[in-house]
Design goal:
It contains seven helices and six strands; from the N terminus they run ααβββαβαβααβα. With about 170 residues, the chain is α/β, with parallel strands linked by helices. It has a six-stranded mixed beta sheet with strand order 1-2-3-4-5-6, sandwiched between helices.
Length: about 170
C-alpha cells in the first residue's frame, strides 16, 4: 500500500494524525462527545467517546510507517478490559498484518468486545466519504485528492462480535 501524500507529510507526527481523526470523528458521529486524552500516558486510547445514551467507547490512532501487529495495540485492549470498555475503534494509516487481523478476531470473539479497524485503504475510504465535511486545511484536502484517485475501491478491516453489533453505532 502506498502512503498518500497527505499522510506522508505528517509521517511520524502522531499528534497531527490524532487531530485529523478528531475532526473525522466529529463528522462521522456528530451527536457524540469526544475527549482527546493527553499526548503521553493516555492509557492506550487517544479519544474517549460518549454516546447520546451515555455509553463509552474508545478511539486509538496509529500513525506508523510499517504494518501494525497485535503488539502495537495490545495496551489498548488491556486497558479496555481493565476499565470495562467493550467498544474500540482503531484508526491507522498503515494496514494491520493478516496475522494481527486473525489474532484480534480471535481475541474479540473470546471476550465479546467489538473492534472496528479503519486501517490503510479503509482509512482512506472513510476519509474520502467525509473529506468535504471535515474541518481540515485546504492543503491537506488537496494532497488527499491528488494522491487518492476517486473511485478506488477499498476494503474495510472490520471486526465485530456477538451482542455488540446491534448496540454500537460508530
Amino acid at each position: 500500500m502506498n502512503r498518500l501524500l497527505c499522510w506522508q507529510k505528517i509521517e511520524k507526527d502522531g499528534y497531527a494524525f490524532e487531530q485529523i481523526i478528531e475532526e473525522l470523528l466529529k463528522v462521522m458521529f456528530p451527536l457524540e462527545e469526544y475527549t482527546h486524552t493527553p499526548k503521553t500516558r493516555d492509557g492506550g486510547k487517544d479519544f474517549v467517546c460518549i454516546t447520546k445514551s451515555s455509553d463509552e467507547y474508545w478511539a486509538e490512532c496509529k500513525n506508523y510507517s510499517d504494518a501494525l501487529a497485535t503488539s502495537d495495540i495490545a495496551k489498548t485492549f488491556v486497558m479496555a478490559i481493565a476499565e470495562d470498555v467493550k467498544k474500540v475503534m482503531i484508526f491507522s494509516v498503515s494496514p494491520f498484518t493478516d496475522i494481527a487481523i486473525r489474532e484480534i478476531n480471535s481475541f474479540t470473539e473470546k471476550i465479546q468486545y467489538e473492534v472496528k479497524l479503519y486501517d490503510g485503504d479503509a482509512l482512506n475510504a472513510i476519509m474520502l466519504q467525509y473529506i468535504k465535511e471535515i474541518d481540515l486545511p485546504y492543503s491537506f484536502k488537496n494532497d488527499f485528492f491528488i494522491s487518492n484517485p476517486v473511485g478506488e475501491s477499498c476494503i474495510f478491516s472490520y471486526i465485530s462480535r456477538n451482542n455488540y453489533n446491534d448496540n454500537f453505532s460508530p
